[in-house]
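Let's study my pick:
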Amino acid sequence: MSAFLLLQILDMLTKLIGLRLGLMEGMRVPAALIGQTNPVAGLLVCKLMAVALAAVALLLGRRITLFNGWFSIVVLWNCLLISGRVAGVC
């Protein structure tokens, strides 16, 4: 669970950096929450939902390694987009 929580924090931080650089949120639910509130509040709600779902999965005896793999890819993607924006590519 600690790796999952770390990935959630990294995802939120990289998304906030990307948004500050002018990138857009690609997923509908976070984008809608960000549009209705502000980036920090919208992403925080999404992260709390993700943690709650992971906790339910663990309580049901499921492993969350698939979630960790997915969020590792998301954080990497965010970093690539940020690097591209800083370099002027995207």
